[in-house]
Amino acid sequence: MRLNPLHNQVGGHDGVMSMGDDNEIIVKPCLAQELEFYEQSILHPELKAWMPAFYGSLTLARQVNTSTTSTEGTGQDPSTSMSVDATTEFSLPAITSLDGIALETFGHKVSTSSTFQSKTGVNGETMSVLVQESSSTTSKEDLCICLENVSHGFTHPCVLDLKLGTQLFDDNAPEEKKARLAAVAAKTTSGKLGFRMTGFQVYDQEQSRYIKYDKQYGKSMTEESVVDGFRLYFAAKLGPKRMKLVLLRFVNDLEDFLEIIKTQELRMRSSSLLLMYEGDRDAFDEGLICEQEARAKAEAAIESEDDDSDEEEDEESSKDQKVTDARLIDFAHSTWTPGMGPDEGVILGVTSTLHIFKLLLEDFNQ
């Protein structure tokens, strides 16, 4: 298996990859601040429940080729490289192991190998990375976190990235950046509503394609027009009953999340609330059946005497089709701040979103 480009990403920075038999793990380049936030989340279980599962961190070595400016004729897949400047080319590293998971190397000729930093995550997994280097490259290290791919379990997810908060910049940012991001907040819905639509995608089942809206669309939204933006997000052709259920679940999720975030002493700058619902009608209905079966098993409290069959059932349940999900993501500029109270800008963003969702839900009740 190998690192693959992350599908269904509607916001955030480039360079996020996925891996695993079903791309169930995300490998995301990060700053030390984000790693620290995830590591300390174990002390905050109420909020941790809303975050992607954190499997640990690793250090990857990017192969730096200074002898060429093009991937043509090298046998290297251009999709795995990113051009930094006119003379330097970076490619994703060749990795052979990650905590016992075999990974496929990329197309470089290997002449030497070296083992880079191992890091133990809060769940106890040790991430050991073996990096293969070609004779014509040098290496630069990237810190990465390994996270649950929260879109795993959906067939055709409709995904919305909502950037939360009225302050978008880190308190330690340069003054120029603070001024620039403060201006962005003032000109967009971030300033008055506490959120901005960073991007979203909606699945059109009749045409078998995604309709995508980028961050420029989100920046163009006003207090008045943002409701129409949400209507576009909820425009998957699922039928009124399914869409009402989606909205009802998101309203319940936001109400629960609002109560949690009011108790958390932290500052989240440019973190996002990621909302997802299934855009395929058949898969949506399958997800409801999976949920019903899971509830029936839990209520019956059936325990098999055969440990092997228990494991098989657990494997099957992990592949169950999802209907909706809501998660908090992106903590590059977030910190825990004991004694300073909750983040009022984030609370405003969740409250505003909840208000709009309730308005949209009323449309289905009329």
UniProtKB/TrEMBL annotation:
Descriptive protein name: Kinase
Family: Belongs to the inositol phosphokinase (IPK) family.
Entry's EC annotation: 2.7.-.-
Pfam families per the UniProt record, alphabetical: IPK
UniProt lineage: Eukaryota, Fungi, Fungi incertae sedis, Mucoromycota, Mortierellomycotina
Stretches with biased composition (Acidic residues): 302-317
Keywords, in A-Z order: Kinase, Transferase
Database matches in InterPro entries: IPK, IPK_sf
GO cellular component: cytoplasm; nucleus
Location of region: Disordered: 299-322
GO aspect biological process, one term: inositol phosphate biosynthetic process
A single GO molecular function term of this UniProt record: inositol-1,4,5,6-tetrakisphosphate 3-kinase activity
